[in-house]
Structure formats: C-alpha cells, structure tokens
Amino acid sequence: MSETAAMTAEAKPKMAVSETDVAIEIVGMNKWYGDFHVLKDINLKVMRGERIVVCGPSGSGKSTMIRCINRLEEHQKGDIIVDGITLTNDLKRIDEIRREVGMVFQHFNLFPHLTILENCTLAPIWVRKMPKKQAEEVAMHYLERVKIPEQALKYPGQLSGGQQQRVAIARSLCMNPRIMLFDEPTSALDPEMIKEVLDVMVGLAEEGMTMLCVTHEMGFARQVANRVIFMDAGQIVEENAPEPFFTNPQHERTQLFLSQILH
Amino acid sequence: MAATDVHYVRDEMAPVLPPPAASGGLLGWMRANLFSSLGNTALTLVGVLILWLLFEPLIRFALIDAVWTGANREACLGHHGACWPYVADYFSQFIYGRYPLGERWRVDIVFAAFAFGLVPLLVPSAPLKRANVIFMLVVFPVAAYFLLTGGFGMEIVETANWGGLLVTLVIAVTGIVASLPLGIVLALGRRSQMPVVRLASVVFIEFWRGVPLITVLFMSSVMLPLFLPEGVTFDKLLRALIGVALFASAYMAEVVRGGLQAIPKGQYEGAMALGLRYWQMMGLIIMPQALKMVIPGIVNTFIGLFKDTTLVLIIGLFDLLGQIQSSYTDPTWATPTQSHTGYLFAAAIYWTFCFSMSRYSIFMEKRLHTGHKR
After folding, report:
1. Three-class SS of residue A42?
2. Does the beta-carbon distance from A127 to B275 stay under 8 Å?
3. In a mutagenesis test of the B interface, which of A82, A118, A126 is the best target, namely the one with the most B β-carbons within 10 Å?
4. Which of A230, A222, A188, A193 is CA-nearest to residue A205?
C-alpha cells in the first residue's frame, strides 16, 4: 500500500512476532447458552502483531469466541486476558479492554443518525475525552486511509456496503486500538465490494496490527495470516500456518470443510 | 433446432434521458386523478356532495348567518348563526378565568415569554440553542411561577382564581415537559437488567395506565386530603398537575419503550465495542434513534394529554372548556345559539393547538430523516 509510507505518527512500525509479547490469552474458556454448550475448552494465545484467521462452519462458535474477547458475550468458565487485563465482571476492566480492542461487525453497525465524521469522532470525544477538533483531524486521517474522506459529511444510509464497512474500520481505528477483531467483515457485502474492504485489512496487517479475523476469505487468510484456526462444534479442531493448513489439513472435519469451500 | 444467435455486445452505452414531463397543469391533474374513468368521476361527485353536506351548514352557521356585533342577547335572538359578540364579550374570561383584572398583565408576560422562548427553540436554524433551552427549562418556569402566583410585591393570586386557556396551558405544558423525561427514565427502567429497577418501573407504569385519569384527579382532590395530617393542604391545581404528569409519563414510557425495541442489537454492540458507558450509549446512540422513530407516538400522547386537560373541570378547576361552559349561565347572552357558538370556539382553539403539534412533528420527522431519500 502506497499510503502507508505517508502515514505519520500513528503508524506503527512493522513488528516481528515476539514470543514474550502476548496480546490475548484465552485459557480453558467455556460458554453455555442455557443448556447448550457453545464453546468447549477454548485455549488460544495471540501474540502482539500476530494475524489470526478463524474459520469454520456456521454455528461452530467462532463469532461467539471473538465476541467474548470484548465482553459482548459473557463466558462462564475459564480466563480471558487481554493486553494484560483479566476479563471479569468488573465494568471498569471491561471498559478498559473495549477501549483497546476495536471491533468490526458483519453488518457494520454504523450509527445511522450521525454523519460519517461524527461516527468516527464520537468515541474519541466521549471515551478518550479528546478535544473535538483533534478528534476530527484523527477521523479525517483514517477516513483518508480507507479512501473515503469525501464522504465525511454524508450519513451511513447514503453509502454503499463496502464504503460503510470501510467507515466502520476507520471508526475503530480512531480509538487507536492495539487489537482489532473482525467478525465476518465481508459476509454481508456484494462481491464487487469485498476487495476494497480486504485491501484495507491487508494494509492494517502490513502495519503490524494484531488482528483476529473470523472470515471465509481464504485468499486473505493465505496472504496475511500467521495462523489459521479451524473451529467446529464449539471447539478448536485444527490450528496451523496457512500454507500447511490449506495444502495438508490433518483433521477430517477440516478436510471436509475445505473441500466444500475451495472448489 | 433453429440456430439462434446469442452473441450480443453493446457497442454504444444508452444515453441518459430526462424524465418524462408531467402531463401538465391543474386540468391535467384533475383529469388524471379525479375524472380518469366513469367510476372515478362518480366517486368524485359523491365526495364533493359529502363535503358540501358537511361543510355547508358549518360555514353557514359560523360565517354567513353569524351575528358579528351587538351588546347583549338581543342582537343574537332570532338569528340561526353563531353569536360572536358573546365570544368577544367573554374573550378575556376565556383566556384568564377569574384572574384579577388589574393583574392580567402578569399572565400576558408569561404568555409572551413562553412564545418568545418556544418559537426559536422550534426553529432548527435559530442560534443560541443552549441559552434558549436553559431559558425555557430554568428561567421561564421560575419566572412564570412567581408571576402567576405572586410574591415580590406582586399581589398573591390564588390558583382557584385562575381559569380558561391559562389553566389549560399550565396543565398541558407542565404535563408535556414532565412526561417526556419521566417516560424515558421509566422506559429505560423497564428494560433494565436490574430486577428491582425493572419491577419498580413495571409497577409504576401499569398502575398509572390501569387507572382512568378521572379517577386520578378525583383521588388527588378528594381522597388525598383525607390522608394528609390536619392543617396540611396543598394546592388543588398542583395536585392535578402532578396527577396529570405522572399519568402521561406512564403512557410516554410505553411509547418510548416501543422505540427502544425497534433499535437493532447491533447498535448496542457497536456502541459497547467502542467503549461507551451505559448512559453515553443510551444518550448518544440509542435514545436519539428510538425517540426519532416514535415521534408520531410521542406527539399522539401530547395531543391526548392536551385534550385530557378538559377533565380537570370535574375537580372544580376551570380550564378553557370549563370556563366556556360556565359562561352559559349568564342571562345577558342566553340565546339558543350561545352554547353552539361557545363549543365551536372551544373546538377551534383546541384544534389549532393540536394541529400545530401534529404539523410540527411531521416537519421534525422529515428533518431528522437521514437515510437515502427515494
């Protein structure tokens, strides 16, 4: 990406994965919806700067897992440690984690009553207590980054799906998060618009953002992921570097899944 | 099998054309909408006939056959139209009730200050919104309270002497201003995760919704004093105000809850994922959208409340309608058309207020619309 060179102070240097620097650690996490055991003994360690793609059939618990990381869902057993903070019921800690963890949703979840610029400045102003003017500068910087600064004064309802998702990414970046979670960011998009969103995500990955992506974009996984995780029936079934994962899957569930999505 | 040529490549893009011109003018519109077929022509004629049957007597009564000048009943006797000089004679009583003649300037100031504060508040482009809101929510109520009741060297005017439009507006405006925030809090309470808060909200809402307003007013004016200790009294108008405000807030709560339920879960998640606290999320993201969605319901409640103020007559407060009805006992103007005229006047006033609220709500709905306009 050519703009990355033009990036200023916010740009993070390209980081090597270091074993000592843990971004997210999930230990023995279990979750139930009533009697239904959705997540079974999840163990996962994400290093700072690492890009992880989570895939699996629908209902396998992959979205639920990443939604537990910023407490959009509550887990009942096990520990989640994000950026050194253990997730508990303590609201203060949850807020602290949410400030550091950005999230991009399948359906964008932009605020339709606010302009694009206001969508981006809202959290920096109210959560980070940033002065309005500065927040707007930051927002414009990231809107340029996702290549839609000219839409700043429009409302989300006036933008295409791909543009809205790019705004959603910019909105998260305005909080300057250390970790980004993506929950099927391209699944609700028209085929033509998937690439523009993936390009932004690839750019982020190249800058060394810690990323945890639930996606079925296998091209993206091959291109940027350090690790691919395959989930089925609420558990992590297989975990490997992308190349061996795709060329030589070990578990039969993985083989079946890949044979169905890679035609 | 016949060989069909499926090969096609467009070699020239279709040009952009202007939309077709509307088939013109009033005549064209009438032909298209009113007289497009034999059946439609018949329906149009029937419609015109019904309108004529409805409005001809009204216009005849209110304008054509009406009496416009006169000093007493003699002028209106023998006429079949409205007796407007009676309304003119009683006009100030309809507005102020039995408020002392020499003190009515105080009411005028309150009315003027209200209009002065309200109009720029309603015009979105008017400047100084913050000062305006502070004026209307803090300065105006305090000033209005002292101007209307007295004090600071002004003669004390008992609320028993208030009446007419003054009482109607005091009850309606207080009810409207109090019921919206109270209703929002109750709606949030009813959806709260905290069982105690939820239960309290449900009990409050269901109690006030389950009781007729007349009962509330009766209770406040007849029963409540029985429970109060000897010598403790508080104003009848104030009791009615509290009753009306709580009653309206229960309805408002359910309207607002309807809006809250229409907000997709993703909006909450989007807000939470950004780290917004509960009140920030509600105040900045959820409520603005929910309230916008239920503007028709909110204004519906306001209009209902405005008209329900007429019920205070049964506890001996004379609002506009009560004041008009009480004037019927005056022999100076007793004619067969007197009550018709009075009720027509009342209807016109109520309609003006309610219709204005309705139009303003439509204007706000359009203004707050942020989606893709088709």
Report:
1. strand
2. yes
3. A126
4. A222
Determine the residue of chain B that is closest to A91 in CA distance: B277
| Model confidence pLDDT, tens digit, residues B286-334 | 999 999 999 999 999 999 999 999 999 988 889 999 999 999 988 888 8
Reported as a single tens digit per residue, the pLDDT across A66-108 is: 999 999 999 999 999 998 889 888 888 899 999 999 999 999 9
Non-local (6+) Cβ contacts of B191 within 8 A are: B198, B257, B260
Do A27 and A43 meet the contact criterion of CB atoms below 8 Å apart?
A: yes
> What CATH topology corresponds to A22-260?
Rossmann fold (3.40.50)
CB of A126 less than 8 A from some CB of B: yes
Between chains, do B274 and A122 touch, taking CB under 8 Å as contact?
Answer: yes
Secondary structure (DSSP) of B41-85: HHHHHHHHHHHHHHHHHHHIIIIIS-B---SSHHHHTT--S-BHH
Q: Which residues are paired to A81 by β-bridges?
A: A25, A86
Q: What are phi and psi of A176, to 5 degrees?
A: 50, 55
For the question of an ipTM over 0.95, the answer is no
Helix (H) or strand (E) holding A171: helix A161-173
Residue B343 has pLDDT above 90, yes or no: yes
- Tokens coding B144: 């209005």
Alpha helical stretches, state H, B262-335: 265-273, 278-280, 287-293, 295-308, 320-326
- pLDDT reported for residue A11: 41
Residues on chain B touching A126 (C-beta within 8 angstroms): 276, 280, 284
For chain B, list the domains and their CATH numbers: 73-99+157-254+296-368 (1.10.3720.10)
Strands A22-33 and A36-47: antiparallel
Q: CA-to-CA distance for B196 and B214, rounded, in angstroms?
A: 30
Using the CB atoms, write b or e for A188-213: b if 16+ within 10 Å.
ebeeebbbbbbebbbbbbebbbbbbb
Give A113 to chain B, closest Cα distance, Å: 6
